[in-house]
Design brief:
Length: about 425
Protein backbone atom coordinates (compact mmCIF):
# COMPACT_ATOMS: atom_id res chain seq x y z
CA UNK A 1 0.00 0.00 0.00
CA UNK A 2 2.93 2.34 0.70
CA UNK A 3 1.21 4.32 3.49
CA UNK A 4 3.31 5.00 6.59
CA UNK A 5 2.93 6.34 10.09
CA UNK A 6 3.76 9.94 10.97
CA UNK A 7 7.42 9.14 11.68
CA UNK A 8 7.83 7.11 8.50
CA UNK A 9 9.44 4.22 10.38
CA UNK A 10 6.50 1.81 9.91
CA UNK A 11 4.78 0.96 6.63
CA UNK A 12 1.25 -0.28 7.14
CA UNK A 13 0.52 -3.86 6.10
CA UNK A 14 -3.19 -3.18 5.62
CA UNK A 15 -4.83 -3.68 2.25
CA UNK A 16 -6.27 -0.16 2.28
CA UNK A 17 -7.06 2.88 4.38
CA UNK A 18 -10.61 4.21 4.30
CA UNK A 19 -11.90 7.48 5.71
CA UNK A 20 -15.64 7.30 6.44
CA UNK A 21 -17.53 10.57 6.66
CA UNK A 22 -20.35 9.44 8.95
CA UNK A 23 -21.37 6.73 11.37
CA UNK A 24 -23.37 4.65 8.88
CA UNK A 25 -20.38 4.41 6.55
CA UNK A 26 -18.15 3.49 9.49
CA UNK A 27 -20.52 0.75 10.63
CA UNK A 28 -20.69 -0.72 7.12
CA UNK A 29 -16.89 -0.97 6.98
CA UNK A 30 -16.50 -2.41 10.47
CA UNK A 31 -19.15 -5.10 10.00
CA UNK A 32 -17.96 -6.30 6.58
CA UNK A 33 -14.16 -6.19 6.65
CA UNK A 34 -12.35 -9.36 7.80
CA UNK A 35 -9.90 -7.38 9.93
CA UNK A 36 -10.14 -3.75 11.07
CA UNK A 37 -8.05 -1.29 13.04
CA UNK A 38 -8.88 2.32 13.84
CA UNK A 39 -6.27 4.85 12.75
CA UNK A 40 -6.07 8.23 14.46
CA UNK A 41 -3.28 10.73 13.80
CA UNK A 42 -0.68 8.02 12.97
CA UNK A 43 1.55 8.87 15.94
CA UNK A 44 2.26 5.28 16.97
CA UNK A 45 5.88 4.30 16.32
CA UNK A 46 5.21 0.56 16.16
CA UNK A 47 2.58 -1.74 14.65
CA UNK A 48 -0.06 -1.15 17.33
CA UNK A 49 -2.43 0.66 14.94
CA UNK A 50 -1.78 -1.66 11.99
CA UNK A 51 -3.63 -4.78 10.85
CA UNK A 52 -2.87 -7.73 8.58
CA UNK A 53 -2.49 -7.72 4.80
CA UNK A 54 -6.17 -8.34 4.02
CA UNK A 55 -7.36 -5.94 6.70
CA UNK A 56 -8.65 -2.39 6.59
CA UNK A 57 -7.42 0.65 8.46
CA UNK A 58 -10.22 3.07 9.30
CA UNK A 59 -9.14 6.67 9.61
CA UNK A 60 -11.34 8.54 12.07
CA UNK A 61 -10.16 11.99 10.95
CA UNK A 62 -13.24 12.84 8.86
CA UNK A 63 -15.89 11.62 11.30
CA UNK A 64 -18.06 14.32 12.92
CA UNK A 65 -16.59 16.08 15.94
CA UNK A 66 -19.96 16.36 17.73
CA UNK A 67 -18.57 18.40 20.62
CA UNK A 68 -21.06 18.71 23.51
CA UNK A 69 -20.26 20.45 26.79
CA UNK A 70 -22.25 19.47 29.87
CA UNK A 71 -21.53 22.23 32.37
CA UNK A 72 -23.44 20.54 35.18
CA UNK A 73 -21.59 17.24 34.82
CA UNK A 74 -18.33 19.05 33.98
CA UNK A 75 -17.71 16.88 30.95
CA UNK A 76 -17.22 17.37 27.23
CA UNK A 77 -18.21 14.67 24.75
CA UNK A 78 -16.35 14.57 21.42
CA UNK A 79 -15.84 12.30 18.45
CA UNK A 80 -12.92 9.94 18.92
CA UNK A 81 -11.05 11.31 15.91
CA UNK A 82 -10.95 14.89 17.22
CA UNK A 83 -7.46 16.23 17.82
CA UNK A 84 -6.63 17.64 21.22
CA UNK A 85 -5.54 20.95 19.72
CA UNK A 86 -8.95 21.51 18.14
CA UNK A 87 -10.75 20.45 21.29
CA UNK A 88 -8.57 22.68 23.47
CA UNK A 89 -9.38 25.75 21.40
CA UNK A 90 -13.10 25.02 21.52
CA UNK A 91 -13.08 24.44 25.27
CA UNK A 92 -11.04 27.56 25.94
CA UNK A 93 -13.45 29.70 23.92
CA UNK A 94 -16.28 28.35 26.10
CA UNK A 95 -14.42 28.98 29.36
CA UNK A 96 -13.44 25.37 30.07
CA UNK A 97 -10.24 23.35 30.24
CA UNK A 98 -8.79 19.85 30.37
CA UNK A 99 -6.48 18.96 33.25
CA UNK A 100 -3.49 18.37 31.00
CA UNK A 101 -2.20 17.93 27.46
CA UNK A 102 0.51 15.80 25.94
CA UNK A 103 3.60 17.36 24.34
CA UNK A 104 1.90 17.29 20.95
CA UNK A 105 -1.64 18.68 20.63
CA UNK A 106 -1.85 17.14 17.16
CA UNK A 107 -2.87 13.69 18.40
CA UNK A 108 -6.42 12.32 18.36
CA UNK A 109 -8.43 11.88 21.54
CA UNK A 110 -9.27 8.21 21.02
CA UNK A 111 -5.73 7.30 19.99
CA UNK A 112 -4.18 9.08 22.95
CA UNK A 113 -6.42 7.54 25.57
CA UNK A 114 -6.13 4.08 24.00
CA UNK A 115 -2.38 4.16 24.68
CA UNK A 116 -2.36 6.00 28.05
CA UNK A 117 -0.55 8.97 26.54
CA UNK A 118 0.29 11.63 29.12
CA UNK A 119 1.56 15.06 29.98
CA UNK A 120 3.47 15.76 33.17
CA UNK A 121 2.90 16.63 36.81
CA UNK A 122 3.16 14.81 40.12
CA UNK A 123 -0.60 15.15 40.72
CA UNK A 124 -1.71 14.85 37.10
CA UNK A 125 -2.98 11.56 35.76
CA UNK A 126 -2.44 10.64 32.13
CA UNK A 127 -4.99 11.67 29.48
CA UNK A 128 -6.94 8.44 29.94
CA UNK A 129 -7.58 9.29 33.60
CA UNK A 130 -9.84 12.14 32.44
CA UNK A 131 -12.16 9.77 30.55
CA UNK A 132 -15.66 9.77 32.04
CA UNK A 133 -17.35 7.69 29.37
CA UNK A 134 -16.88 5.88 26.07
CA UNK A 135 -19.01 4.76 23.12
CA UNK A 136 -17.51 1.84 21.22
CA UNK A 137 -18.63 0.42 17.87
CA UNK A 138 -17.97 -3.33 17.92
CA UNK A 139 -17.39 -5.67 14.99
CA UNK A 140 -21.01 -6.84 15.22
CA UNK A 141 -22.20 -3.28 14.58
CA UNK A 142 -23.43 -2.80 18.14
CA UNK A 143 -22.73 0.28 20.22
CA UNK A 144 -21.39 -0.27 23.73
CA UNK A 145 -21.60 2.61 26.20
CA UNK A 146 -19.45 2.53 29.32
CA UNK A 147 -19.18 5.19 32.01
CA UNK A 148 -16.89 5.60 34.98
CA UNK A 149 -18.06 3.23 37.69
CA UNK A 150 -19.19 0.47 35.34
CA UNK A 151 -17.41 -2.83 36.10
CA UNK A 152 -15.56 -2.93 32.76
CA UNK A 153 -14.95 0.79 32.34
CA UNK A 154 -11.41 0.62 33.74
CA UNK A 155 -10.60 -1.96 31.09
CA UNK A 156 -12.04 0.03 28.21
CA UNK A 157 -10.48 3.43 28.92
CA UNK A 158 -7.05 2.19 27.78
CA UNK A 159 -8.07 -0.36 25.18
CA UNK A 160 -5.26 -0.48 22.59
CA UNK A 161 -8.01 -0.55 19.97
CA UNK A 162 -8.80 -4.14 20.91
CA UNK A 163 -12.51 -3.66 21.65
CA UNK A 164 -13.74 -1.75 18.61
CA UNK A 165 -13.75 1.77 17.21
CA UNK A 166 -14.18 4.41 19.90
CA UNK A 167 -16.67 6.78 18.28
CA UNK A 168 -17.24 9.13 21.25
CA UNK A 169 -15.35 10.02 24.39
CA UNK A 170 -16.58 11.99 27.41
CA UNK A 171 -13.78 13.82 29.24
CA UNK A 172 -13.69 15.61 32.57
CA UNK A 173 -13.36 19.39 32.26
CA UNK A 174 -12.77 22.23 34.69
CA UNK A 175 -12.99 26.03 34.46
CA UNK A 176 -10.27 27.54 32.31
CA UNK A 177 -6.99 28.56 33.92
CA UNK A 178 -3.82 30.39 33.04
CA UNK A 179 -0.31 28.95 32.84
CA UNK A 180 3.15 30.41 32.53
CA UNK A 181 6.23 28.54 31.36
CA UNK A 182 9.75 29.14 32.51
CA UNK A 183 12.97 27.42 31.53
CA UNK A 184 16.06 26.89 33.65
CA UNK A 185 19.40 25.79 32.25
CA UNK A 186 21.86 23.35 33.79
CA UNK A 187 20.19 21.61 36.74
CA UNK A 188 22.88 19.69 38.67
CA UNK A 189 22.44 15.92 38.53
CA UNK A 190 23.06 15.83 42.28
CA UNK A 191 19.92 17.91 42.82
CA UNK A 192 17.84 15.67 40.55
CA UNK A 193 19.04 12.47 42.18
CA UNK A 194 19.15 13.61 45.81
CA UNK A 195 16.07 15.85 45.82
CA UNK A 196 13.96 14.27 43.10
CA UNK A 197 10.61 14.77 44.83
CA UNK A 198 11.35 18.45 45.46
CA UNK A 199 12.39 18.97 41.84
CA UNK A 200 9.34 17.37 40.24
CA UNK A 201 6.82 18.89 42.67
CA UNK A 202 8.06 22.45 42.17
CA UNK A 203 5.37 23.32 39.59
CA UNK A 204 2.12 22.06 38.08
CA UNK A 205 4.23 20.30 35.47
CA UNK A 206 8.00 19.77 35.41
CA UNK A 207 9.96 18.32 32.49
CA UNK A 208 13.69 17.65 32.54
CA UNK A 209 15.53 17.44 29.22
CA UNK A 210 18.87 15.70 28.80
CA UNK A 211 21.04 13.64 26.48
CA UNK A 212 22.36 11.81 29.59
CA UNK A 213 26.05 12.48 29.00
CA UNK A 214 26.08 16.14 30.15
CA UNK A 215 27.46 17.20 33.52
CA UNK A 216 24.03 18.67 34.33
CA UNK A 217 20.46 18.38 33.05
CA UNK A 218 20.32 20.69 30.05
CA UNK A 219 16.83 22.14 30.67
CA UNK A 220 14.15 22.18 33.33
CA UNK A 221 10.83 23.21 31.78
CA UNK A 222 8.32 24.37 34.38
CA UNK A 223 4.62 25.01 33.76
CA UNK A 224 3.21 27.02 36.68
CA UNK A 225 -0.44 27.86 37.34
CA UNK A 226 -1.18 31.55 37.18
CA UNK A 227 -1.79 32.76 40.72
CA UNK A 228 -0.27 29.71 42.39
CA UNK A 229 2.09 30.27 45.26
CA UNK A 230 5.66 29.59 44.23
CA UNK A 231 9.03 29.90 45.86
CA UNK A 232 10.88 29.66 42.56
CA UNK A 233 12.60 32.87 41.62
CA UNK A 234 15.47 33.18 39.20
CA UNK A 235 17.15 30.01 40.39
CA UNK A 236 15.95 26.39 40.26
CA UNK A 237 18.15 24.10 42.36
CA UNK A 238 21.20 25.96 41.16
CA UNK A 239 20.04 26.41 37.56
CA UNK A 240 19.49 29.99 36.37
CA UNK A 241 16.28 31.09 34.67
CA UNK A 242 16.75 31.51 30.92
CA UNK A 243 16.03 34.88 29.38
CA UNK A 244 15.67 33.65 25.79
CA UNK A 245 13.21 31.07 24.49
CA UNK A 246 14.66 27.62 23.79
CA UNK A 247 13.66 24.50 21.91
CA UNK A 248 14.55 21.35 23.86
CA UNK A 249 16.51 20.19 20.78
CA UNK A 250 19.05 22.95 20.04
CA UNK A 251 18.94 22.42 16.25
CA UNK A 252 15.15 22.84 16.04
CA UNK A 253 13.19 26.05 15.45
CA UNK A 254 12.05 27.58 18.74
CA UNK A 255 8.97 29.02 17.00
CA UNK A 256 7.46 25.54 17.14
CA UNK A 257 7.31 25.62 20.94
CA UNK A 258 4.61 27.17 23.08
CA UNK A 259 5.23 30.58 24.66
CA UNK A 260 7.91 30.62 27.36
CA UNK A 261 9.69 33.25 29.50
CA UNK A 262 6.95 33.44 32.15
CA UNK A 263 4.33 35.04 29.91
CA UNK A 264 0.94 33.92 31.18
CA UNK A 265 -1.51 32.46 28.68
CA UNK A 266 -4.45 30.05 28.59
CA UNK A 267 -3.84 26.39 29.41
CA UNK A 268 -4.68 25.54 25.79
CA UNK A 269 -1.58 27.43 24.60
CA UNK A 270 0.85 26.39 27.36
CA UNK A 271 0.34 22.82 28.60
CA UNK A 272 1.56 21.25 25.36
CA UNK A 273 5.21 21.75 24.52
CA UNK A 274 4.49 22.50 20.87
CA UNK A 275 2.18 24.90 19.09
CA UNK A 276 -0.79 23.35 17.35
CA UNK A 277 -0.22 25.37 14.18
CA UNK A 278 3.27 23.91 13.63
CA UNK A 279 4.51 20.39 12.94
CA UNK A 280 7.42 20.15 15.38
CA UNK A 281 9.85 17.88 13.52
CA UNK A 282 8.04 16.64 10.42
CA UNK A 283 8.36 13.08 11.68
CA UNK A 284 12.15 12.96 11.51
CA UNK A 285 12.39 10.91 14.69
CA UNK A 286 11.59 7.66 16.46
CA UNK A 287 10.33 7.65 20.03
CA UNK A 288 10.56 5.21 22.93
CA UNK A 289 9.39 5.66 26.50
CA UNK A 290 9.52 3.62 29.69
CA UNK A 291 7.39 4.50 32.70
CA UNK A 292 9.07 3.43 35.92
CA UNK A 293 7.35 3.13 39.31
CA UNK A 294 8.25 6.31 41.15
CA UNK A 295 9.89 4.34 43.95
CA UNK A 296 12.52 3.16 41.44
CA UNK A 297 12.89 6.39 39.47
CA UNK A 298 16.28 7.46 40.82
CA UNK A 299 17.71 3.97 40.27
CA UNK A 300 16.37 4.05 36.71
CA UNK A 301 17.90 7.46 36.03
CA UNK A 302 21.26 6.29 37.35
CA UNK A 303 21.05 3.18 35.16
CA UNK A 304 20.33 5.17 32.00
CA UNK A 305 23.18 7.59 32.75
CA UNK A 306 25.53 4.62 32.77
CA UNK A 307 24.31 3.78 29.27
CA UNK A 308 24.96 7.29 27.96
CA UNK A 309 27.95 6.32 25.75
CA UNK A 310 25.75 3.73 24.03
CA UNK A 311 22.57 5.73 23.52
CA UNK A 312 23.76 9.33 23.12
CA UNK A 313 24.93 8.94 19.48
CA UNK A 314 21.37 7.97 18.48
CA UNK A 315 19.56 10.42 20.69
CA UNK A 316 18.07 13.81 19.82
CA UNK A 317 16.79 14.48 23.35
CA UNK A 318 15.37 12.68 26.35
CA UNK A 319 12.65 13.90 28.70
CA UNK A 320 11.94 12.96 32.30
CA UNK A 321 8.31 13.50 33.42
CA UNK A 322 6.02 12.37 36.23
CA UNK A 323 2.49 10.93 36.07
CA UNK A 324 0.04 10.21 38.90
CA UNK A 325 -1.33 6.73 39.56
CA UNK A 326 -4.71 5.53 38.28
CA UNK A 327 -6.84 2.36 38.30
CA UNK A 328 -7.12 1.77 34.53
CA UNK A 329 -6.21 -1.82 33.74
CA UNK A 330 -3.73 -1.24 30.90
CA UNK A 331 -2.50 2.17 31.98
CA UNK A 332 1.25 2.48 32.43
CA UNK A 333 0.40 4.21 35.73
CA UNK A 334 -1.91 1.44 36.95
CA UNK A 335 -1.63 1.24 40.73
CA UNK A 336 1.45 3.44 41.08
CA UNK A 337 2.83 6.90 40.45
CA UNK A 338 5.33 6.67 37.62
CA UNK A 339 8.21 8.57 36.08
CA UNK A 340 8.44 8.56 32.31
CA UNK A 341 11.86 8.30 30.68
CA UNK A 342 11.23 9.39 27.11
CA UNK A 343 13.71 9.04 24.26
CA UNK A 344 13.46 10.97 21.00
CA UNK A 345 15.81 9.12 18.69
CA UNK A 346 17.21 9.85 15.27
CA UNK A 347 15.15 8.09 12.61
CA UNK A 348 17.50 5.13 12.49
CA UNK A 349 15.36 2.05 13.04
CA UNK A 350 18.20 -0.47 13.01
CA UNK A 351 20.39 1.66 15.24
CA UNK A 352 17.64 2.23 17.80
CA UNK A 353 16.66 -1.43 17.85
CA UNK A 354 20.31 -2.29 18.48
CA UNK A 355 20.47 -0.24 21.71
CA UNK A 356 17.00 -1.01 23.08
CA UNK A 357 18.00 -4.42 24.52
CA UNK A 358 20.53 -2.78 26.85
CA UNK A 359 18.07 -0.07 27.82
CA UNK A 360 15.32 -2.60 28.52
CA UNK A 361 17.67 -4.86 30.46
CA UNK A 362 18.27 -1.92 32.78
CA UNK A 363 14.68 -0.68 33.07
CA UNK A 364 12.26 -3.60 32.76
CA UNK A 365 13.57 -5.34 35.94
CA UNK A 366 12.66 -2.12 37.77
CA UNK A 367 9.05 -2.55 36.69
CA UNK A 368 9.22 -0.07 33.79
CA UNK A 369 6.22 -0.31 31.47
CA UNK A 370 6.87 0.75 27.85
CA UNK A 371 4.52 3.31 26.35
CA UNK A 372 2.18 1.26 24.18
CA UNK A 373 2.54 3.50 21.14
CA UNK A 374 6.31 3.91 21.19
CA UNK A 375 9.06 1.64 19.88
CA UNK A 376 10.04 -1.13 22.27
CA UNK A 377 11.16 -4.76 21.89
CA UNK A 378 10.44 -6.79 25.05
CA UNK A 379 12.29 -9.78 23.61
CA UNK A 380 11.68 -11.87 26.74
CA UNK A 381 7.93 -11.04 26.93
CA UNK A 382 8.29 -9.36 30.32
CA UNK A 383 5.71 -6.63 29.68
CA UNK A 384 2.50 -8.73 29.96
CA UNK A 385 3.49 -9.68 33.49
CA UNK A 386 3.66 -6.01 34.50
CA UNK A 387 -0.15 -5.66 34.19
CA UNK A 388 -2.05 -7.45 36.98
CA UNK A 389 -5.38 -6.99 35.17
CA UNK A 390 -4.24 -8.34 31.81
CA UNK A 391 -6.33 -11.51 32.11
CA UNK A 392 -9.42 -9.41 32.86
CA UNK A 393 -8.70 -7.26 29.82
CA UNK A 394 -8.23 -10.35 27.65
CA UNK A 395 -11.66 -11.58 28.76
CA UNK A 396 -13.19 -8.19 27.96
CA UNK A 397 -11.63 -8.19 24.49
CA UNK A 398 -12.84 -11.74 23.85
CA UNK A 399 -16.37 -10.77 24.89
CA UNK A 400 -16.66 -7.61 22.77
CA UNK A 401 -14.67 -8.97 19.80
CA UNK A 402 -15.11 -12.76 19.89
CA UNK A 403 -14.08 -13.20 16.23
CA UNK A 404 -10.88 -11.19 16.69
CA UNK A 405 -11.73 -8.65 14.00
CA UNK A 406 -9.69 -6.00 15.84
CA UNK A 407 -6.91 -8.40 16.82
CA UNK A 408 -3.57 -7.72 15.11
CA UNK A 409 0.02 -8.96 15.50
CA UNK A 410 0.72 -6.45 18.29
CA UNK A 411 -2.27 -7.64 20.33
CA UNK A 412 -1.46 -11.29 19.59
CA UNK A 413 1.99 -10.80 21.08
CA UNK A 414 0.44 -9.20 24.16
CA UNK A 415 -2.71 -11.25 24.68
CA UNK A 416 -1.93 -14.52 22.95
Amino acid sequence: MGEKNWAGNHEYRAHRIVQPKDFDELREIVTTAPKVRALGSRHSFNDLADTVADGVLVSTAALPADTRIDADARTVTVGGGVRYGDLARELQSAGWALHNLASLPHISVAGAIATATHGSGDRNGNLSSAVAGLRILTASGDLVDLVRGDPEFAGAAVSLGALGVVTEVALDIRPTFGVRQRLFGGVPWEAVLDRFDEVTSAAYSVSLFTTWHEDSVALAWLKELDGADTEIGGDFFGAPALTEARHMIPTMDVRNTTQQLGIVGPWSERLAHFRFEFTPSNGEEIQSEYLVPRAHAVDAIRAVRELAPLIAPLLQISEIRTVAADDLWLSSAYGTDVVGLHFTWLRDQAGVEAVLPALEAALLPLGARPHWGKLYLDADAVVPGLYPKLDAFRALADRLDPAGVFRNPFLTRLLG
